[in-house]
Amino acid sequence: MNPRQLRHGLAVLLQYNMLFYSVEPDTEVAVYEANVEYAYNLIRTGKILEMIDTSFGAPAKDIMQSLLLLGQARISDLIEAYQQKIDQAKKAAAEKIEDGNEFEVNSVNGHSDSIKKSDLLVKSTAQLNSVICRLVEADLIDVVHSRSFQTPQDIHKSVEKEVTERLFPGGPKGGKAKIELQDKIAESLRKIRSESKSLKRKLEQNVTSAKRRKLFSGGASNGAHDEEVDPDLDSRQVIRINYEKCLVDLRNRRLVQFATDIYGEATAYVYGVLLRLLTKPIARCRPDPVMDIGEGDKDRQKFGFVTIGEILDSLKTSVDLSLGLGKVAKHDISSRAADAIQEEPPKPKLYIEEADVDEGDSADEAKDGDGSNSSGSDSESDHKERPATNGSKVQFADSTGAKEMRLDRPAQLRQHLLLLSESNQHFVRHCGPNEWTVDFVPLMSALREFELDSVIERTSGRQGLRLVRILRTKGKLDEKALPTVALMKKPEVQQKMLEMQNAGFVHVQEVPRDTKADVKKSFFLWFSDVDKSLARLLDTSYKTTVRCIQVLEVLRQREKDVLELTKRTDVRGRERDVMRKEYFDRYSRFLENERKLFAQVMRLDDLVAVLRDF
Q1: Helix or strand or coil: residue 241?
Q2: Other CB atoms closer than 10 Å to residue 19's CB: what's the count?
Q3: CA 121 to CA 110: how far, in whole Å?
Q4: Cα torsion for 152, 157, 163, 164, to the nearest 10°?
Q5: What is the model's pTM?
Q6: What is the pLDDT of residues 268-307, one digit of tens each?
Q7: How far apart, in Å, are the Cα atoms of 509 and each of 371, 522, 525?
Q8: Lowest-confidence pick of 71-75, 302-306, 398-402, 497-501
Q9: Residues 110 and 136 sit within 8 Å (Cβ to Cβ)
Q10: For the RNA polymerase III Rpc82 C -terminal domain, which residue ranges apply (predicted)?
């Protein structure tokens, strides 16, 4: 590459936020470094656009797609591009009215497409300004500033040097001074990070914008909004997509899908509304270990819960909350257990605590023993409440009266929240009177373990999954005792454990009996390390994704002549009619293979997001 090509390539990569760079003050030499996170986020383009379309409408999706295609853009350039598109559509519509012929105009990205005025998603610059304001308020768009292209390590290094020279010229002395230095560094780093939120702060300070947010904050937007109350944005500002906030919304969608698989659509819809309200002030999925020192507790106290009233205000009136709820008589429900408040997040619970209880009550049963026994005596005397057997089927008589089950909407919503809070995954926690929250750290840990178990079951079967769960419960277990505990034959256990060891799901440790390392006299302890297994699974997901992309590139090279033929303007859109059958069959097979490979990449990205980002 010659210098001109090199400079052009660096400029393009900087335009798409694919590079970090820093200039040495002494030598004025620029040092470049790849921005791997932004490069990987290109895979999630389709998911982000789908999420924007569902939450904010088609106009917002069109603007976000333009930003994705441009990497970053000045607001004035966006306004000019959309205004040109609108003018061309109006001119073409006028020409069509005059002569009645079809018309074609160029779109923003330069392609020749047939556009009608009714097909324009953004019909005016005022609407463009309003939609950008809504996306900025939702924290989905950031402002590009002078330090946006510096690596976090370079920023931390320069801030640490500046704070040390300003407050500790001779260096920090003592533990207290070191702690104060770290606090000052974290405060300075937070100020630098907040520079990208300057446009959002201006909108929050605007009175008319705050009024509009109050009027149009509930539910998914369908494009209806008041364009006149939005302030005109500074046309000199350069904006780009905030992927950190996009990941928060994608995490909400994944958790809603997780709840749908377990409880159904009605309960999952309530959970989605709760997550949307709870994560409005959350800027990223995982707090920064340096910048967010002490900030997590403040945010949790300020934004850490939602009430039933807030959820009801955001629920659609067309949603039937009675769906997904069972019919249980009031005297069969322990009100004390339902009203129990958990002020602290749940602690991880081992399987052995539930599995090895053969006599006596567990901790939860002992806690509610009085209430359950008193209600149980009444139900046992009533034969209508007891299950009636009819051959191999079990039928439960519905003795609950219609008046008793006619719950109002807040009570039905509370039933859904109680259902989520009592799950083994702890989707929701009842943290106070009429207050509900979500503990994302243990919840995502449970989701990661669920994904790992799914992979183990697909690769090693139910027996392999049972062996892994036994090892998680018992800890390290001798290979001689494992067949007895698992109720399996010794050759089957050895074969299955070797298979899972090669896959990275289980590990073995050799413990010698004495100082002489004799293999015949050593203990071999099998154990399961969840963290190591997740790291191995993440690495495998990376490699599989790369292989899928490489296979796709090979297929494109193999069908190069057919793909070049489809790029011709007289062939595009008319492939079946224009192309010969031999070439069209090759083109159809390529499209089918491409679709399958992209679908596999999307599934792998779902797994990577759960293991690494969420």
Answers
A1: strand
A2: 19
A3: 17
A4: 160
A5: 0.78
A6: 888 999 999 998 888 888 888 877 765 544 444 444 788 8
A7: 48, 10, 5
A8: 398-402
A9: no
A10: 131-447
